[in-house]
Structures are given as C-alpha cells and as structure tokens.
Amino acid sequence: MTSPLPESWSGRSALDRAHIWHPFTQMKDHEADPPIPVIAGEGCDLLLANGNRVLDGISSWWTCLHGHGHPKLMAALERQGAKLDHVIFAGFTHEPAIELAARLRSKLPPNLTRCFFSDNGSTAVEVALKMAFQAQLQKGQGQRTRFGALNMGYHGDTLGAVGVGELDNFMTGLFRPLLLRCERLAVPEDPRRELHVNLDGWVDRLEAARQSIRFFFENHGEGLAAFIAEPLLQAAGGMRMWPPEMLVELRAQCDAYGVYLILDEVMTGFGRTGSFFAHSQAGIEPDLLCLSKGLTGGVLPLSLTWATDEIYSCFWADYTEGKAFLHGHSYTANPLACAVACASLALFEEQPVLEQAAHLSQAMKSAWSRLGELPSIRKARILGTVAAAQLVDPGTGEPHSTESRFGWRLHRRALEAGLLIRPIGDCLYFMPPLGTPAARAEQAVDTITYLLK
Ligand SMILES: Cc1ncc(COP(=O)(O)O)c(C=O)c1O
Asked: Potential cystine with 400: which of 39, 56, 406, 422 (Cβ 3.0-4.6 Å)?
C-alpha cells in the first residue's frame, strides 16, 4: 500500500490544513498556529513530532486513566482483534459486552441493573434523556415534557445534550431555537474544596441553596421527566466543584416529585474525583447513570447508560404494544472497545489504582496550594486528581481580557516547557492520568508557577 503522506511534517501539516476540520476550534487560528503533531503516547507523556516530550496534564480530553499505551489494555485490544472486531448488537451479543456489564455491575449501586451501550458521552446522555421521557410517557406521565438541569452544566454537543447544558455562552447559545425545554437551577461552588478556604457565612449559604432546590421543584417538579447533573464537579462549565449536600437534596426532591435523576459521570467516573464514582461521596443513587471517557481507560470510544429495574420495566411489553426503546448506533457495544474497558476495570482490581490516585491527589494538593499563592491565581481548588484555579491579571485581580487569549497562550508556552494544559477560559486546570508519578505532577505545577511568575 502506498501512503499519500508527504515525507516531512510540514507537508503533512499542509494536508491537515487543507482537509481537516478540528473540534472546538476556530480554524482560522490554525493558519498561523497549526495543530501540533503527536507521534506517540508513553505512560503519562505524549511525544511530539518536534521531539519534545510533554506530560498529558489534561488526560487527553479527560479520558486517559492508566497512561498511554498501557500494555494490558493494548494486549486486550490485540487479543480481541484476533477474535471478533465488530458485529451488530441488535439481536446478537458477545463475550466482551457481557463481561463488561458484569464487571461494572459489581461496582454500581444495587438499583442500577440494566446497561445500554453507545459510543460517546453525548450519546450516553441522549439515551438517558430519551429513556427518561419515554419511561414517564409509558407510565401515563406524558405531561412531563421538560428537563431540569444545573446552570453551567455541560453534557455534550448533540442537540439533546446541548439542550440540557449551559446556554449562556457563545458555543451553545445560538442553538437555543432548536432545543429541548429545560429549566435551570443554580448551585453554589463548595468553598471547602478551596486550598485557601474562607467559610464565613457558608452554613447559611448552603441552607439557602437547599431552599432554592425545594423552591425549584415546587415550581417545576410536576412537569419534569428528569433532572440531569454532573455530580460534584461541573467540568466544562469551569471545574465548578459543588457540594454533595446539594446532590442529596436533589435526590430527595426528585423522589418527592416523581422526577428521574440522571447523573452524568462521563467525566467524573472511574476514580477521577477520589472515589470510583463521584455520586458515592453523597451517598445517593441515580435512576440513570451516564459513563464514557475513562470507561476504556481512554483508548477507544464507548459509553454506557445504566438504568434501574423500575425504568426498564416501563419498556417491557408485548412487541405490538410499541413500548421498546428504539434507539441504537452502528458501533453499539463494539467488541474491541468492550474488551479494552474490561481490561481497564481489571486493572482497578489487580493494582492499587485508587490508592495511587489518592497519593497523587495529596502531592497535587500541596503543589497546587503553593501555586494558589501567586497574585495571578484565585480560588485554587482540588477534588481527587482534578486541580483547578482562576487565572487573573495580577495588576487588577480581574480576569484577563478575551482578546488577550491568555489561556491559549499559556497552553502554547506550557507545551514548549514540556506540559500539556488547556485552560477553559479563565479556568486553569490540571488533570493528569491517575497513574502519573507524584514527582512528575509536582514538576508540572512548578512549570505552571514558573510560566505565571
Ligand atoms: C460531563 C460530560 N458529559 C458529556 C460529555 C460529552 O462527551 P463526548 O465528548 O464523549 O460526547 C462530556 C465531555 O466533555 C462531559 O464532560
């Protein structure tokens, strides 16, 4: 097979610019500042075509758990590839999917008994929204045509997911005329996650926030099919860490008003926040749970929507009653992805992955606390192995102007210094793979400190 690729990376970059439309990117920017070629991944590092090695401080869009190219995950991929690459999942089944369901079942709250496969976080959310609506409809609750969601939430880029995400920004606001009907609720950030904490007035603010949830449900509860939230950490909304007490209240109000609670753990799942799933820190159980990203350790696209028996039973009927959940994707339960996901889950049992993550979190906490003392940093905070802070102009204490593209420039400068970070607006965050050695994480925070001084 002859390759159409030019020999040099400059020739390849020209082809990229000629034909490829990159995600979340103003493509005009790439005329002056082309996409950076990556040629390999090794543990917590990425190797760039220019020979630089950079620490993957964003876990490759929050997916990579055990490091790149983990031998056990790669071996599982190879083994499965030799057996079965793909097969339709409607009317057929296979070992990796069954094993994955069984492995995960044992890690989930007992009420979640049924899983539905799709292939990315957005589709896991779409499935949950459709399931919730259809289940309510089939229970005679057809008036529940709206959803509830948190301000500043993010659940993906398909239209259903956009409809329950934050709309007050330039990425999603323009789609407003096309979207689902959604009522939004504000939750406060949790000051207890901050490394230079001030808890003045917190007890009163927490109680007021609880009251606002009750008020929200009094107003909207009867019309909602489901309420969706990212438990404890609103990631794309700016790494907003919110109180577990609010999640407990949400669960109680959903129960009181017959509203399903959908938890979107696409980003928070698989040990990222200090526990295997974030919701367990609040001691509650969702009715629907969305998983993706770390599900395959960050190797292949796959997602799951877990549902309760109660929801499942709403779809159980004779064929002619037309109650089935008629949804599916071509690559549903792809065997290669399922096999890698099984290998990733097995690693949690074979190795002290969560203990290592706790150790990493401690190291990140001390380093991040020092970073938090810089005049260009506000509100340094941490949850598990996700550290975040606000970038400000040290002269004014205010966020940098949008025109200055401070975050983008910091991202490019950090790459030169051997670190991949990618601030979201004013929000600087650092989220390396769980298996990153503590010393490498500390070094990365030193790099950020140096760049901000
Ligand atoms: C909480 C959450 N839900 C859903 C998604 C969408 O996932 P995907 O990009 O795989 O569609 C994301 C992506 O960042 C996410 O953070």
From this structure: 406
CATH 3.40.640.10: which residues of the chain?
73-349
Predicted pLDDT at 382: 98
Amino acid at 376: S
- Report the residue among 171, 267, 273, 279 best suited for mutation to probe ligand 1: largest number of ligand atoms under 8 A from its CB: 267
pLDDT band, residue 370 (cuts 50/70/90): very high
For a pocket test of ligand 1, which of 228, 290, 292, 303 has the largest count of ligand atoms closer than 8 A to its C-beta? 292
Q: Is the CB of 236 under 6 A from ligand 1?
A: yes
Residues 335 and 339: their CA atoms lie apart, in Å, by 6
SS3 sequence, 42-83? EECEEEECCCCEEEECCHHHHCCCCCECCHHHHHHHHHHHHH
pLDDT at 68: 98
* CATH code linked to domain 73-349: 3.40.640.10
Determine the pLDDT at residue 171.
72
267 lines ligand 1 (CB under 6 A): yes
CA distance 36 to 24: 15
Pick the CATH number of 36-69+352-452 from 3.90.1150.10, 3.30.365.10, 3.40.50.880, 3.40.630.10: 3.90.1150.10
Average confidence (pLDDT) over 53-64 = 98
